[in-house]
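Input/output pair, single chain:
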Amino acid sequence: MTASPNDITRLLALWQHGDGPALEALVPLVYQELHRLAGVYMRGERPGHSLQTTALVNEAYLRLRKADGIRWQNRAHFYAVAARTMRRVLVDFARARRQQKRDGGQQVDLDEVLTISADRSADFVALDDALRALATLDRRQSEIVELRFFGGLTDAEIAEVLHVSPRTVSREWSAARAWLLRELSRDVARDA
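Output:
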């Protein structure tokens, strides 16, 4: 099912104002793109040891549905928030897995289908920590990384969400990426 960006923006506005049927109409229009975003997150997982893409989409949907007070700007903003939500799901799960190991094997809260390798769990936690540190230094650069790396948005779409030029996005992406690589390399060196 395809829809124009304007159709999605209109449904988001209606949903924002409490129109429940608008949300029901929106879901089939955005599901394929949400599934693609989840696939971006899942790339690189070992076969048989990865979070199921559909489970990630479903968990993100449930969290988005509960989210109050979001003033949806447009389609790109929705996908940016969805990407951020998926990242939070993965980080929460990774932290729960780390805690489970420390607690001697207590049950993790999330669905049993949500399985992720321990190595990737550590990667998600380290990346989340680095993004949080970057956000304290430069909030916009942190958002650009999140939207591009996790959300799969183009420079033009990120520029639209953040109300800056695509050239600014490109320049700040380069700076943020260099900072993150340096920060993550330090973490690897400390752990070695």
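The radius of gyration is 17 Å. Confidence is low (pLDDT under 50) at residues 105-121.
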